[in-house]
Amino acid sequence: MKTEKQFMRRSRHWLLAGVVLMAGTVGPTSCSEYDLDEETPAGWGASIYSWLDDQGDYTNTVQIIRDLNYTNVLGKTGSKTLFVADDAAFGRFYANNTWGVRSYKDLTESQKKMLLFGNMLDNSMQLNSLSSVEGPIEGECMRRFASNSPYDSIMVLDSEHMPDNRYWKPYREAGKIVCMGDNSTVPLIHFVEKMLEMKRITNDDYNFLYNHTTDRKPGDASVNGVQVEQPNIKCSNGFIHRMAEVVTPLPNMAEIIARKENVSQFNSLLERFCAPYWVGEEMNVRYNDMYGTSDSLFQKRFFSQKSQKGENLNLTPANTPVSGQLLFDPEWNAYYAGNNDLGGNVAMERDMAVMMVPSNKAMDEYWNTGAGRVLKDYYGSWDNVPDNVVAKLINNNMLTSFISSVPSKFEDILNDANDPMGVTVESVDSVWLGCNGAVYLTDCVYSPTAYVSVSFPALINETMNILNWGIEQLQYNVYLNSLNSYYSFFLPTNHAMLEYIDPCSYGKNKTQLYRFHYDPTKPESDRVWAGIFNYDIETGEVLDSIGRASTDQVKNRLNDILNTHIVIGNVEDGKTYYRTKGGTEIRVNNVAAGVGGMTVEGSYQINEGRPLVVADIYDQTEKGNGKTYILDGAPIMGTRHTVRDVLASQEEYSAFLDLLDGTGLIEQIHLNRNACGGDNISTFNTYHYTVYVPTNESIRALQQQGKLPTWEQVEAWEEAGLTAEKTRDSLAIVDFVKYHLQDNALFIGATAESGDYETALINPETGRFHRLTSKLDENGIVIRDEAGNTRHVLISNERLYNRMAREYQYDGIDKTQAGRIETTSSAVVHLIDQPLLIKN
């Protein structure tokens, strides 16, 4: 690889510009109150050109103005601001610069344009006004477009200086390409007191940004890192600000990284994501007219979620989907954070970006002995690591806001899991400032938590990319990447995702099966699709195809799948039942048997299916956040059985079922106009519940004692026309049933817990729900009611406790036309020895 100096010497081959295309950007604060067309206001001095020419020690700048035929513009009234250096500063520039220029005669026309137009603003601005954006609002602006043109720095790249990836290969083989880095103007960066104060950037921060070569004092100002020595020289057509040194345009972050030998490893990964894009007919014609050529003009762009104009760049130059994207395009000169909803260039002016780039030494340590070792062990070499995996690493080191990423705010920098990243001043070796952001050279690699997360197997293994797509699209990556929790993640393979029974079909005449597929040739947002088939749930036979699910339906089902496959906690702690993120319960057995023996079941597998065998286990506990259990047969699924279905399945529940059926608590359409998948309980609402069912004998004994009415008695009151008695006894039965419906599902075999839990019954005197005091431990469940009675879950017959139910609500009021799951509730049913009472 060539050195930076050698690279810059090649810039002598830059094309000479023949015509200047002035950027038409107008800054927010200027002397526009003056009509400076032809007349000079009283009290104003000479023109910018005349003042420079009269001083005698700005001969370099004066000659540049003459050579570029700009004397008339700067010699008459108008509205310009110029940042200039005297001849002594030019002498120092010629003695030491990266352009390979040793005297004025060495300057190319393109370089002259960069020195003049790159240091000029197209309006008249005093120094303090530089910090103002439209409004004017002071203290908000840190950079603004100069008068230069994208055509000023077009290069003819030879093979040696092109990125080494498949998109550039044809041009590398051809030997050259005419290319601009970015088709936007290069901004100037200016740090003035008001902006630094408003953005809470301290003097120590400033000195850090300039590698402690400065000792900033209050009131100091700089442009592109060069100190302003004499501000606000008033001329008839604007202002001159004399600079301590020659100011040169700053390269963008991508250009900086590409030119630094000591970050070549990171750059090789970064440049996987760039390609040459034709600039389009209009720009190409203008370029050829300017230079008298017939070349095709390209620009270098990076596949990114945010590129030029803030738009997503997710297609290659051949209009095929990309295999990975960066957070933003580091080649984009006009990068801005957030949304450009303020209009104009205001968003660009307020902020820029930061990239943390590890040295080659840091990359070697990361790969061989650090967190990157997991990649080395799996892939063998960086060349084998897929783009979507590499993108995770790069994106974790891309910070979208410079203002929020200076040393005084390091503790607030978050990683890809929204946890503190732990950036320190000591870890940053040096800083390179670019026109669109700062590059922090680091002596360590800030590894993405995705590499040590339980979701990592889905990221790296193509046989699991359906769930990986769901994780990314539904933003479960932030959740699963958190290192503050321990997760047990059950991960179905693509093969397992061919066997997903659709819960939306539980309310239809025929059960349906989703078969998910992954298509890498589609754009990222549409890569997973699903075919829908009729399905015989009794025989397991897949019947006729009835079409394809919409992308919304695919995401809706994947959301439900992810919710039921994530457990917060360790499923190898000796228990049997575990609650998932979605509030459902799963059963885990044979943990000691490990791969090929350990099993997991959802409520569908428990009620109607068979246990799912764990096909593989990824242990991420050492540096990560849990274990991943691979399922290859089918995903964990929810039962079609509602609470009423469970009650109807066992004679021992029949007395309680008779009471429930008359209460009006069973619904087919919820109050929110959502159709139900079956006979749902109306008091359930997107949560998990316990249903305590007293034995038939205990309920009948209560009725015989006259403490609980029967529905026959209620009917008798109705026939006799005794409305008050009918209402009294009806409410008594409803209240009795509601008091047996408890918030929080308690499973025997789950982690012990106890507390006062609300029931579905409201106390009209207090407006609060009546409670039960329940205790779950290794011996079972004991319940104490408000009357002071102690009841027990009966565990002699396993068919009568830990019975699972799940109740679905769908979109719309017609369950036969349901397209998406709107919400679900889950419940466990236990037989108890005696009824629960508010009072005896």
In words, what does this structure look like?
- The protein is of the alpha+beta class.
- It is 25% helix and 24% strand.
- Strands 2-1-9-8-7-6-3 form a seven-stranded mixed β-sheet.
Mean pLDDT: 92
Query: Which structural category fits the helices and strands?
Result: alpha+beta
Task: Report the sheet with the most strands, covering strand number, pairing sense and barrel closure.
Answer: 7 strands, mixed
Spatial sequence of strands, sheet with the most strands:
2-1-9-8-7-6-3
- Percent range for β-strand residues: 15-25%
Please give the alpha-carbon distance between the first and last residues.
88 Å
Helix content: 10-25%
Total beta-strand segments:
36
User: Are there runs of 5+ residues with pLDDT below 50, and where?
Assistant: 1-43
Number of helices: 26
Question: What's the Cα radius of gyration?
Answer: 36 Å
Principal-axes geometry comes out as elongated
List keywords for this structure.
alpha+beta, single chain, about 850 residues, about 25% helix, 26 helices, about 25% strand, 7-stranded mixed β-sheet, 36 strands
List the helices and strands and how they pair.
Layout: H1 4-10, H2 48-55, H3 59-67, H4 71-75, E1 80-84, H5 87-95, H6 109-116, E2 120-121, E3 143-145, E4 155-158, H7 169-174, E5 176-180, E6 187-191, H8 193-198, H9 203-209, E7 222-223, E8 226-235, E9 238-243, H10 253-259, H11 264-270, E10 274-278, H12 281-291, E11 297-302, H13 346-350, E12 353-358, H14 360-368, H15 373-379, H16 387-396, E13 398-399, E14 428-434, E15 437-442, H17 456-460, H18 465-473, H19 476-480, E16 487-492, E17 500-501, E18 511-518, E19 528-536, E20 541-548, H20 551-565, E21 566-568, E22 577-579, E23 585-589, E24 599-601, H21 603-607, E25 612-619, E26 626-631, H22 643-648, H23 654-661, E27 666-669, E28 675-681, E29 688-694, H24 696-704, H25 711-719, H26 723-738, E30 741-743, E31 753-763, E32 768-777, E33 780-784, E34 790-792, E35 803-810, E36 821-832
Parallel strand pairs: 1-9, 5-11, 12-15, 16-26, 29-36
Antiparallel strand pairs: 1-2, 3-6, 4-5, 6-7, 7-8, 8-9, 10-11, 12-13, 14-15, 16-21, 17-18, 18-19, 19-20, 22-23, 23-24, 24-25, 25-26, 27-28, 28-35, 29-30, 31-32, 32-33, 33-34, 35-36
Helix pairs in contact: 3-6, 10-11, 18-20, 25-26
